[in-house]
Each structure stands twice: as structure tokens, then as C-alpha cells.
Prior knowledge:
Rossmann fold; 6-stranded parallel beta sheet; 15% strand; 2 domains
Amino acid sequence: xxxxxxxxxxxxxxxxxxxxxxxxxxxSVDSWPGNMLRRYDIWHVHWPDSLLNIPNNFHAAIKVxxxxxxxxxxxxxxxxxxxxxxxxxxxxxLHRKIEPWFxxxxxxxxxxxxxxxxxxxxxxxxKFPPLRKIPTVVIRHGHYRxxxxxxxxxxxxxxGIPPDAKVVMFFGAVRPYKNxxxxxxxxxxxxxxxxxLYIVGKPNSEQLADLLRQKAATDPRIRLNFEFVxxxxxxxxxxxxxxxxxxxxxxxxxxxxxxxxxxxxxVVVPELGAMGELKEDFSGEWVRTFRGEIxxxxxxxxxxxxxxxxxxxxxxxxxxEWKHIGSxxxxxxxxxxxxxxxxxxxxxxxxxxTGR
Length: 356
């Protein structure tokens, strides 16, 4: 089976590279744009909405038009388009006129879809009814456990963190919808002694970075590291946290939450999107949810909760293992090529029965 993938890998997230490496020898994967004269069975796309994050209207329109032209060319040659549904809208909402047209054009071209959660699949069916007529499945977002080396020793001294500090950490790309500014506001008012807030990640604008610097300047308990963290240091930073807090205003799935769990750090997330399923899968021992905006009481409760005894290593549910994910993805490809939604359901039911 020959697959064209977009993207096969990204510098900020090994997720897609892990997806394709899990498929085994039955699938040959080329990176977009590949060889457009070659016939592909599957074109597997992630984050097509990233085209809507291009600031310039003209450049965004050109990129979107080129994407649809390439899609139509490949589909005319028999290639099936598979979409992994990470988002249903662009987070930045830069192009309010182009975006509705984009989704109206994109959805009818999709031949099969993968959701990372049951909540995501239900939301997709409601927002995009044509998806009900094609093969769709739920395949979990795999873990990152083998991607980041654990630190050889306690990293708190190197990071300048006192040994008795109770560290709340935000880790990941800093963007407006992630509510990091509200996290800083809430932290100012917490009552837990020796608390420290560490924000680790690169803001997507200097304006947002300046806002956070201003808010943090009045509280010496707040540390900011506005840099892209190299792979070798990811686990080191996370190992310094008592609890990772991700106070997103909106979220469907969260790679940062799964990264924290992969590094055996308890995580606090809003009760939105698939976060309830994440709590069910990993248990309330590792995932805590809250409703509404982040409040000081949420942070105080999170620090008390994180201090409770738990295993040193967070157990990984089987559905988050890459071997399982590879088998499910291949089954979806096969169902799409058969062009029947029932084929996808039948294959996955059989996989669950046999434990593949």
C-alpha cells in the first residue's frame, strides 16, 4: 500500500512520525509533495486547517487553492483522502471569510476519517454530516514515552528551583486560546506555601510574550522560559513539575496532556472535548478536570492532589500503544479502499475481539 502523508514529521511534535513508523512494512510512506506522477493509494493529511493560520490573506488563499487542486488531481487518479481530525476550526481565526468556504470544500473530498476520541467523532458528525457516509474510526493519540530521554538526576538545582517548591507547570506552545495569561492571574492569588509557577514554551507573538512578562513581573514565584525546548530537555523540564496545568479556553485533544502523562506527571485540564475520556483512560489518579475558567482554588486543589501517593510511572493503556495504533490505522486504510463505512466497523470489531 502506497501512502502520501502530510506531514510525515514536524519539528515540534513527533506524533505523525510515530504514526507512520507504526504501520510496518505493508505500507510505503512518502512525504508530501512526494512524486505527483506516482499513483498513491492513500493521501493521509493532518491539520489541513494550518493553511488558515497563514496571516496574509492572499498567501492563505493561494495555499488553500493549491491544496484543493492537488487533492482533486490525486483523487482523479484513484487516491483516497484520509483525514485525522485534530481540530474542526483554526485556533487563530485569522480568515473569517475564507474558513467557512475551506471546510465546505474540504469535507466532501474526504474519503475516510480518524478521530482521536469518541467525543471528537461525535462532534465531527454533528458539525460535518457528510462524514456519516464514509468510513470513520476512533484511534487514540499514541504516547511519547520512548521519545524523550529521562534526566539522569534531579534537574531542579540546574533550573534554579528550590527543593521544597511546589511547582505548577504549563508546558507547550503558548497561544491565546490556551489561557496562559489567566493561569498567571489565578496563580497570583493562590494560598499554597512554597508554590512556584513555571511557564515553558514559545509564544506565537511578541505581543502575547510582553503581556505575560508584564503579568509575571510583580510575582517572584513565576518563572518564564519562552524558548522552544529541545527533545533532550523535554523530560527534564517536566520532571521538575509537581503538576502540569493546561487551562485551555477550548480543546478537542491535547498532545501536551499526553506528553505530561508519558513523562509520568499528573495533569489538570478543563472538562472539554476529549479530556473526560483522557481521565477515564488514565484514571483520576493521573488526570484531574475542572469546569469554567481557571481559578486560584483550582490550583490550590491541584497541588494538594498532586501530593497524594501514586506510582512513579504512569501506566499506559493498551489503546495508546503504537503497535495497536498502527494496526487500527492500517485497518482504516483498507476500509477506505473498500469504500464502505461498515468495512471499517467490521475490521475494528474483529481487532477488538482478537486483541490485535
